[in-house]
Design a protein that fits this description.
By secondary structure, the protein is an alpha+beta fold. It has 3 helices and 10 strands, in the order βααββαβββββββ.
Amino acid sequence: MPQLLLSQVRKSGHITYVASLDISSLGNYLVKAPKAHKSQINETLNNNKNIKYILTFNSVSSSFSKEAKMKKDTKKGGINITELKAGSGVYFFDKIKKENLLQKNSFGENFLILIPESKWKITREKKMIGKYLCYKAITEKTIEGRKGVKK
C-alpha cells in the first residue's frame, strides 16, 4: 500500500543589510570646493555612518526596517547622509492581501501609507553577486508634484 507523506516547508528568517555611502567620487569636488565649505563638508562626511537594515520574513509576510539604536551616532545637529539616501520607515509586505505598506513617523505619530503595486520587467542585463546570478529588473513610477507629472 503506497503512503503519502505531506510536509510543509517553512521559509522564514532574518537578513541584515548594511547601507554605506561611497564617497570616493567626492575627491575632485572637495579639491574644488571653497575653503569656507570644506570644513562643513568634512564634518558632514565624518557624521556619515553605515546603517544596518533588517529584513524579517516568513512564507506570507515580511518587514524591512532600520536597526534600532540606543543612541544617535552623529554629532548633535549633524546629518548622516547615508540615512538620508537609504531611507527610513518600516516597510511591510503581505503576500495574502498583496499589500505593500510603509510606516512613517511624522511629528511623533505613525502613519501607514499604501504603496501601489509596481509592474517589474526583468531585463537581460545580468551580474554575479557573490555566488548568485542576478538579473536587472526595472519599473516605472509616476510622481505628481508642484512642477507637474514625471515618469
